[in-house]
Description:
The protein has 342 residues and is mainly alpha-helical. It has helices spanning 4-17, 21-25, 57-64, 68-81, 108-125, 131-151, 163-174, 178-198, 215-230, 234-255, 274-285, 292-309, 316-337, and strands at 31-40, 47-55, 89-98.
Amino acid sequence: MESEAEALDGVVKLLKHRNRHDLAQLLQHAWLELEESDQYGSRLFSRLTTARIHAPIDDYERLRSLPEHDQNEFVGTLREIYPPRDHSMEITSVEFVVDTSVPEDSNQDLIREIDAQRNLMMAVATGGPRIASVNAEYQQRRDTIEEMLRALDIPDPNPFNDLWAWYGKWSSGDLPSYDSRRRFIAELYAPLTDRLKRGTPARASGIFKEPTGWAKIDRTVTEIRQRLERASSEEQFQAVGLLCREALISLAQTVFDPTKHPILDAVDVSPTDGKRMLEAYLAAELGGSENRVARKHATAALDLANELQHKRTAVFRQAALCAEATVAVVNLIAIVSGQRDP
């Protein structure tokens, strides 16, 4: 027979396979205890058994607040691993127990708010409460989460300003099934919660947060950050990409000198061909084998920013990647040009 640790690992694998990543995540730091009673079950001398899942405080709070059908999912999955047999145990119920031996996460309050928001979004999208009755709760919690993330200098990955915007997403045909909606929400928040559970400094580190001194470029970068924070629709995410394009064009026009930076493919470039001008600038200013790695890094950031600008199916992650790559290019060029020198 499998050990209890192996059994819980099996539950996690089965839940992930069935796209219940939200439930599987709650068991990542849990351990299982199986307690047999002296009462007989449905098989010959099978013993009724309770599965006790011990979890850290924040996961415990989330587990015990799950709806009954989700709690029964654990029972059913465990019964697949330990099917009832004669003269053996028969799992019929699950209990959740707080494990206080695990150190509390430094970001536990924020994680708890995120989990509550995620659970609410899943509930309304899978036959739960009516949006009108819980939308105010969602919006208030969204403000709380944004404020807590701002203190860590982390953007909120959730693009939906209210539950009606979230309804618009799943009802448009993009997420036709309950499983697809659960998976979307799990994937939306997973990178953030994983980062917070690993531990994040009181404020995320950052180099060169101050303006470059190039006024037009600095204004555009500020606008990119603000637009990204507020964006919730495809059109608004595409607008972030357009601003990134404008930032790179302005950057190219600022540093490119045709007498010093020959275009690599020798074509005549327009004043708005920021990519070619910046490639020529980097090739000239970061020439030589000693700068090969730095040049490769800079051109890779430029290629990423350029590609993401033209994505027509824009979502938060694409817009955020584009913004991050664009700011990276701006800072790299500012360093190379001497604009960042003390």
